[in-house]
Amino acid sequence: MMVKRCFAAGVCWTLLMGCVFAAHALTFEVTDGNSTCIKAELSANFSISYNTTNGTSVARFVLPSSAAVGSSSSCGGGDVPPELVVMFGAGHTLALMFSSDGLLYRVANMSLQYNLSDTATFPQSSSSRIVSVMTNVSEISARLNSTYRCLSSMSVSLSTEVNITFSDVRMEAFMNRANLSTNESVCSADQTVTTTAPTPSPRTTVAPSPVPPPAPERGNYTITNGNGTACLLALMGLQLNITHHSKSLNKTVSEVMNLQPNRTTASGSCGVPRATLVLSEDLTNLTFTFTLNLTTQKFYLSAVNVSAFWPDMTDRFVEGNGSLNFLQCSVGRSYMCSAEQMLAVVPTFSINTFRLQLQPFNVTANRFAAAEECRVDQENMLIPIIVGAALAGLVLIILIAYLIGRKRTHAGYQTI
Ligand SMILES: *[C@@H]1O[C@H](CO)[C@@H](O)[C@H](O)[C@H]1NC(C)=O
Ligand SMILES: *[C@@H]1O[C@H](CO)[C@@H](O)[C@H](O)[C@H]1NC(C)=O
Ligand SMILES: *[C@@H]1O[C@H](CO)[C@@H](O)[C@H](O)[C@H]1NC(C)=O
Ligand SMILES: *[C@@H]1O[C@H](CO)[C@@H](O)[C@H](O)[C@H]1NC(C)=O
Ligand SMILES: *[C@@H]1O[C@H](CO)[C@@H](O)[C@H](O)[C@H]1NC(C)=O
Ligand SMILES: *[C@@H]1O[C@H](CO)[C@@H](O)[C@H](O)[C@H]1NC(C)=O
Ligand SMILES: *[C@@H]1O[C@H](CO)[C@@H](O)[C@H](O)[C@H]1NC(C)=O
Ligand SMILES: *[C@@H]1O[C@H](CO)[C@@H](O)[C@H](O)[C@H]1NC(C)=O
Ligand SMILES: *[C@@H]1O[C@H](CO)[C@@H](O)[C@H](O)[C@H]1NC(C)=O
Ligand SMILES: *[C@@H]1O[C@H](CO)[C@@H](O)[C@H](O)[C@H]1NC(C)=O
Ligand SMILES: *[C@@H]1O[C@H](CO)[C@@H](O)[C@H](O)[C@H]1NC(C)=O
Ligand SMILES: *[C@@H]1O[C@H](CO)[C@@H](O)[C@H](O)[C@H]1NC(C)=O
């Protein structure tokens, strides 16, 4: 009974929160025939400075609920990008133009046209012009097939005179459903202020914090050659550690992210003397190059390249190092390291590996060959052996002492 009441109260609270969040958010939908291609729920506050007859003034207003999708909106196609055009008030227009690179979509261009002859909004304006401003700098980007979510306030400056502050944003472009995807790409502001986020983020990018994330899940990545047989096998948990300039904190931070196997796709190529494994996850591309030295008959990880654009980054992070010599192992064997291992690629980028086993060459029957263990594992294994040997030695000494003791006692009896 108690449980039921708590549950009911929880639901009420959730509904109430929903109402509070939805209070100002308006919904806009761009459709093509019967299918929706852009859907946006948002609230917007405008702050526009303009010249009046006796100085300058700032008009502040919210996007009114009478705002509607304009007919120049488009789902795109050919060379035309998809665009959401919202008309409101006395001839004002807000337009969001989207672009995509096949992995992410973003607001590539945001523009506003405002009509200074609207005296209700711009009292005593010295001009009655229509002013157009636009920017192609926006933080709004999300994975394809996911909803961009930013409940926190987010300001976009379109010019020195015009700022728009968005909040309660849920938006998706390049859709192929009627409703917003439940899969969300959460903006960095919502990630740091997790208490205001009603749903947990599917991403594991931990906003820069001193607390390291838990050990990553182990991925099973396989590359197959043309006829479907595996030629590169890798089982490993990966944690990326990138030092970059944080947008939210305006300083350099080391951000640690776990690669999520079920969001990661593996591709690559096999060959001699080089094999590559490319792991692509949402906002991260990672390339491992393995080289086989035919003289020494050993293979090793010779190069790592990374390209990442995480939500809190000011720029895309692109780094690599082509002269590495990690994870060395005899050809025909697999390399194994159960212990955590750090691969320092460049000073600003390292990878922590967990429970790793891999074989980039000579894979037969889709199975790992006999494993060659890393030194840490060998040392870890040595400890129980040493302890065991010490114990065995102790037992032996006690036994010998006992036997000698017994012999002495026997000898004593005989003399009597
Ligand atoms: C839209 O739906 C209606 C009825 O559901 C159907 O008759 C029409 O062909 C559909 N149009 C397109 C472009 O799919
Ligand atoms: C827009 O934002 C910038 C930076 O936050 C601020 O300096 C400027 O005064 C704002 N302009 C208006 C019209 O609100
Ligand atoms: C206001 O007037 C000044 C000078 O006349 C001009 O430089 C400025 O650009 C004007 N500002 C706006 C917002 O039109
Ligand atoms: C301009 O005039 C209006 C009323 O005439 C007044 O309310 C406003 O404060 C004045 N603005 C400035 C910058 O003097
Ligand atoms: C998005 O979904 C469509 C259809 O469900 C699929 O064809 C496409 O590959 C997906 N794109 C991504 C990047 O997941
Ligand atoms: C990895 O995946 C392959 C095929 O996808 C499967 O045969 C193999 O058992 C998996 N290995 C582990 C340890 O899950
Ligand atoms: C698949 O191709 C590789 C070389 O590309 C060859 O070594 C292997 O025997 C082939 N396996 C099968 C089952 O045909
Ligand atoms: C990430 O890298 C920084 C800088 O090299 C280092 O101080 C930090 O300990 C690393 N964190 C983890 C979890 O590896
Ligand atoms: C970021 O920090 C630098 C100096 O540490 C400062 O000059 C700059 O104004 C700051 N930027 C923002 C947006 O706060
Ligand atoms: C990925 O794995 C996590 C944890 O195992 C799970 O909660 C989540 O639903 C999975 N996501 C997908 C898209 O399979
Ligand atoms: C193979 O290893 C040997 C010995 O370390 C080295 O001298 C040689 O340059 C290596 N060959 C290649 C192709 O890297
Ligand atoms: C990852 O690679 C794909 C395909 O080359 C590219 O479109 C995407 O922008 C890359 N992502 C990052 C974060 O660099």
TrEMBL record:
> How is it placed in the membrane, per its record?
Single-pass type I membrane protein
State one Pfam family annotation: Lamp2_2nd
- What's the protein name? Lysosome-associated membrane glycoprotein 1
In which organism is this protein found? Cyprinus carpio carpio
- Presence of the UniProt keyword Transferase in the record: no
Show the ranges annotated as biased composition (Low complexity): 192-208
Q: Name one GO biological process term.
A: establishment of protein localization to organelle
> Boundaries of each Lysosome-associated membrane glycoprotein 2-like luminal domain copy?
27-174, 216-364
Keywords from the named record: Cell membrane, Disulfide bond, Endosome, Glycoprotein, Lysosome, Membrane, Signal, Transmembrane, Transmembrane helix
Q: Which PROSITE patterns match?
A: LAMP_2, LAMP_3, PROKAR_LIPOPROTEIN
Location of region: Disordered: 191-217
- Give me the disulphide-bonded residues: C337-C374
The record's GO CC annotations read: late endosome membrane; lysosomal membrane; plasma membrane
Q: Which Gene3D superfamilies match?
A: 2.40.160.110
Q: What family is reported?
A: Belongs to the LAMP family.
